[in-house]
C-alpha cells in the first residue's frame, strides 16, 4: 500500500463514503431478506418455536464469536480487507440456509450466516469511523440509514417474493443483488492503517466507560432484534396477518428507521448526541409499548414504525461514542461495543422465543419498552459521539 492509498485525497474519501454506505446497505439487505424467511422455516423443517429459537441462537453465537475475531484482524490489516472478505462469504450465506434440508445443516449454515454478518458489521462500522475522520464530518447515522434501507428493501420485497415464487428463488435473487454490490462498490472502501503496535498482543480495554457504552448499545438493540426475528411471527400467529402483511412489520420498522437515520447526522449536530439519544429512546419506548398492545396487524405495523423512528439514531450514536472513547484504540472499542450491542439483536431473540412459547409475544414487546427507557437515563454516556468531541480526543493519524 503506497502513501497515496494510506492517505486518500478528498475525492477518494468521498468515494469511500459511498462505498461504506453500500456495505451497510448490502449487510442490511441480507439481514432484511432473512426476516420473511423465518416463519417458513417452522413449516419447511417441521420444527417448533423452541427449535427455531435455538437456530436463531446459533446465528447469534456465530456473530458473537466472529466479532472479536474481526476486531483482531483489523489490528493487523485495517478494516477494508476485513469488510470485503467477510462480505463475499455473506453473499452466499442466505442461500445456504435456504438450501439446508434438515435442522442440523440449517444450524451449520445459520452459524456461517451469523458469523459473516457480524464480522462484516464490526469492520464496516470501524471503516465508517475512519471515513468520518477523513471527511471531518459525521456520517455514522446516515451509514446506518443505508443498513436500514437495505433491511426495508430486503424485508419488504422478500415477503412478497416468497409468497409469489417460493423461498429458494427469493434467496437466489438476494444472492445476486448482494454479489453485484460487493463486486462493484466495496472496492472503493477507504484504506485505514492497522492500529496495533509491534510486539503487542490483542487485549480488551480496561476503561469501564467503554463497557457502559456497550451496555447502552445492548439495551438499544434487544428491541431491534425482537422486531427482526419475531415481529413477523407475532403478526401472523397472534394478530392473524398473512405472510405478505407480516413481512411489512420489519419493513416498516427499517423504512422509517432509514429515513430518520438519513436525517440523524444533522439532528445530532444541531441538538447534540446526548439530547438526541435521550429523546430517541423515549420515542422508541412508546412505539414498542404500542406494538405490544396493538389490536390488529396494521396498528402493530404503525407502532413498529414509530419504534424504528426512535431506535434510528440510538445505535449510531453509541457506535460513534465507542469509536471515539478517550484512551481506547478505535477498532478495539468498536469491537467491544458492537459485540455487546449485537448480542441484543442476535442472542436475546432466542430467549424471547423461549419465553414467547409460554406467554406470547405481546407481553414481551411491552416489557422491552422498559429497556429503552433505561437507555434514555444512560444518555450522558454518549457525549463523546459529538463530532467536536471526536476532534479533541481522536488519536492523530
TrEMBL record:
It is a multi-pass membrane protein. It is found in: Membrane. It comes from the Bacteria. The chain crosses the membrane at residues 12-30, 50-69, 81-99, 105-124, 145-165, 171-190, 210-231, 243-263, 275-293, 299-322, 334-355, 361-382. Keywords: Membrane, Transmembrane, Transmembrane helix. The keyword Membrane applies. It holds the Pfam family MFS_1. Gene3D superfamilies: MFS general substrate transporter like domains. Its main location: membrane. Residues 16-387 form the Major facilitator superfamily (MFS) profile domain. The keyword Lipid biosynthesis does not apply. PANTHER family: BYPASS OF STOP CODON PROTEIN 6, INNER MEMBRANE PROTEIN YBJJ. This is MFS transporter. It comes from Aminobacter carboxidus.
Amino acid at each position: 500500500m503506497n502513501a497515496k492509498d494510506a492517505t486518500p485525497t478528498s475525492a477518494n474519501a468521498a468515494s469511500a463514503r459511498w462505498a461504506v454506505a453500500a456495505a451497510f446497505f448490502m449487510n442490511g439487505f441480507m439481514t432484511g431478506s432473512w426476516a420473511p424467511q423465518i416463519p417458513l422455516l417452522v413449516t419447511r423443517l417441521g420444527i417448533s418455536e423452541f427449535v427455531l429459537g435455538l437456530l436463531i441462537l446459533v446465528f447469534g453465537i456465530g456473530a458473537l464469536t466472529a466479532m472479536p475475531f474481526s476486531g483482531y484482524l483489523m489490528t493487523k490489516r485495517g478494516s477494508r480487507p476485513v469488510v470485503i472478505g467477510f462480505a463475499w462469504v455473506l453473499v452466499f450465506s442466505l442461500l445456504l440456509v435456504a438450501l439446508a434440508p434438515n435442522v442440523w445443516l440449517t444450524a451449520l449454515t445459520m452459524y456461517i450466516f451469523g458469523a459473516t454478518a457480524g464480522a462484516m458489521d464490526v469492520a464496516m462500522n470501524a471503516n465508517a469511523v475512519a471515513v468520518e475522520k477523513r471527511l471531518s464530518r459525521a456520517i455514522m447515522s446516515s451509514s446506518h440509514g443505508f443498513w436500514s434501507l437495505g433491511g426495508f428493501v430486503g424485508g419488504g420485497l422478500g415477503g412478497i417474493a416468497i409468497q409469489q415464487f417460493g423461498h429458494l428463488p427469493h434467496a437466489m435473487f438476494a444472492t445476486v443483488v448482494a454479489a453485484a454490490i460487493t463486486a462493484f462498490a466495496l472496492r472503493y472502501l477507504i484504506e485505514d492503517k492497522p492500529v496495533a503496535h509491534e510486539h503487542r498482543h490483542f487485549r480488551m480495554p480496561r476503561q469501564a466507560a467503554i463497557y457502559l457504552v456497550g451496555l447502552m448499545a445492548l439495551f438499544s438493540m434487544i428491541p431491534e432484534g425482537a422486531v427482526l426475528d419475531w415481529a413477523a411471527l407475532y403478526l401472523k400467529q397472534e394478530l392473524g396477518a398473512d405472510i405478505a402483511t407480516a413481512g411489512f412489520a420489519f419493513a416498516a420498522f427499517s423504512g422509517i428507521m432509514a429515513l430518520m437515520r438519513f436525517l440523524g447526522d444533522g439532528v445530532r449536530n444541531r441538538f447534540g448526541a446526548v439530547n438526541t439519544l435521550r429523546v430517541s429512546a423515549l420515542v422508541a419506548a412508546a412505539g414498542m409499548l404500542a406494538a405490544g398492545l396493538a389490536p390488529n396487524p396494521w396498528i402493530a405495523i404503525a407502532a413498529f414504525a414509530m419504534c424504528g423512528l426512535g431506535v434510528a439514531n440510538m445505535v449510531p450514536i453509541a457506535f460513534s461514542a465507542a469509536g471515539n472513547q478517550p484512551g481506547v484504540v478505535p477498532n478495539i472499542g468498536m469491537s467491544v461495543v458492537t459485540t455487546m450491542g449485537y448480542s441484543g439483536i442476535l442472542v436475546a431473540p432466542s430467549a424471547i422465543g423461549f419465553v414467547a412459547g409460554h406467554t406470547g409475544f405481546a407481553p414481551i414487546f411491552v416489557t422491552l419498552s422498559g429497556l429503552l427507557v433505561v437507555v434514555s437515563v444512560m444518555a450522558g454516556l454518549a457525549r463523546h459521539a459529538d463530532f467536536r468531541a471526536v476532534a479533541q480526543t481522536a488519536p492523530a493519524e
